């Protein structure tokens, strides 16, 4: 009876994600509205920053709610277009065209489905956290640099270095243009609202900061009749561009394959890391990583078939969902319903939003991708991890997303190999007689990375003493080390034997006496 009354009153007796009831449904309904209000400006902003129609961002958000949100995996995290893929999508659209985007996303989704079916989802947790943080930091830097141009209603250069290198020239152009200054003021006001709005706790409970910032910027632009660029609207059905046969032919290109792999790796890693973070925010069922990877793959496959943006699980929307009191996956499904209703009934509402306001939202989102607070403690405690993070971020800025991530992964592997290949040399018998062998024992992991140090320690041993090398204490020895150690021991002992033989031969002679036909017995043994 108590459980029935609790459910009737909405007391929340059911743990998050575990069941339904009147109270649960009420909580999910409220949470879905909050997530919807957070998702609208982010979906539109990511699409505009990616160089595609704004409606494609809404389509991805709708699929993330209605399809991925309905599938098993993680019960409370919310999927949609993410700032983390903005740079990669922009580069792909610039290089291959908007029509090819659907093929890239579809192929990435199918790869995710295959990896989930092969139970590879859990292996994404093995990716170095420093690489993921560096990846997000590099994305954040390029995203901020690109959106600074959008703040001034200017066109950004295509490369990351070009965006950063062109900032001084952009500042000069803005300073000499009243129209650009007005657009920058709109964007700066949006960023200020995003920073200050959460401090107004009562307002933040009812209106999420991104929506409040965009609403205020849109109102100010309309009231003051500012001459700034606004979002272009084509209509939901007109924006859908399913890929054709010609676009699938591009799959034979090496560059396209690399882009698909980058989509798959980044979208999967970001989604599964987000799932781990969301699991720490609630007490409900934990994420099944393989099922979640398949859910993300199904969503991306459908987004690709519709020619829309790729999706990932987004920590901002997911955290808002949990904090709003969501209990089950109903909240994220309903948020997809509200996005669909908005896109169908109120598409013209997008046309009044200033581009500079969305740029401000993404500059703020890009800054949150950079782990500024974590970098100094990481440098103090794990210097190697900090180096991997910085190198990964810098590589993404200098080259591109795919190559930057590959460089980061290689750096992480090299760092781990270096740290695990510890070798210690123990020498016994240094105080013994010259005719007694040195017993040298090598312990640890002998790899080519530590070979120079190991050989230096062996070369420092007395050259007139025979060495007995014991490798039984090694947990691992690679081919290069094994060959080098065997060769060194053979040569060292050969030199010692030769020197001892020469000394024995000289010691057997006496002045004026013929050569002795036989060496002394002890010299025979040493030789």
The percentage helix is 55-70%
Question: What fraction of the residues are assigned to beta strands by DSSP?
Answer: 5-15%
Query: Termini separation (Å)?
Result: 96 Å
Largest sheet: 4 strands, mixed
Compute the number of helices: 24
Order of helices and strands: HHHEHHHHHHHHHHHHEHHHHHHEEHEEHH
Low-confidence runs of at least 5 consecutive residues: 1-18, 512-527
Radius of gyration using CA atoms only: 32 Å
What class would the helix/strand composition place it in? mainly alpha
Oligomeric state as shown = single chain
Keywords:
527 residues; mainly alpha; four-stranded mixed sheet; two-stranded antiparallel ribbon; 5% strand; elongated; disordered N terminus; disordered C terminus
